[in-house]
Design goal:
With 115 residues, this protein is an all-alpha fold. It folds into two domains: 1-42, Arc Repressor Mutant; 44-115, no CATH class. It contains five helices and no strands. The chain has helices at 12-25, 29-42, 45-57, 60-90, 99-113. Helix 1 (12-25) crosses helix 2 (29-42). The chain is elongated.
């Protein structure tokens, strides 16, 4: 599906962040902005308001702490998705109650997920 073009202006610091992050991730600036916007608009209104308050009135430490908390929440979400995906791919229906069963599961994991 073709995208819709939106136009915006940002301050010089934000432009530098977008350019640097895009370069590091191998994305265009447009892709980086689209991903950032997609996250922001999916936040509930209370979270967007809180973000604007921290940005407008918080000091640098408040902003760093807030970004750290958001980062931890996202990484926890990624971990949970990966854990569920791995568990479903292993499909262990029976308990691992002896060393042979454990070795069989480990062997299957290496074959499924190894290099």
């Amino acid at each position: 599906m073709p995208g819709k073009t939106l136009t915006t202006s940002v301050d010089e610091n934000t432009a530098l962040f977008v350019e640097e992050n895009s370069r590091i991730e191998g994305w265009s600036s447009s892709q980086t902005l689209a991903a950032a916007l997609a996250l922001y608009v999916r936040l509930p209104p209370e979270a967007r308001r809180a973000f604007r308050v921290v940005e407008a009135y918080g000091n640098r430490e408040d902003q760093i702490r807030t970004v750290g908390a958001v980062t931890r929440a996202l990484l926890n979400g990624e971990y949970e998705v990966a854990r569920r995906k791995l568990a479903s791919r292993l499909d262990i229906a029976t308990a691992i109650d002896d060393e042979d069963a454990l070795l069989a599961v480990a062997d299957r994991m290496v074959k499924d997920f190894g290099p």
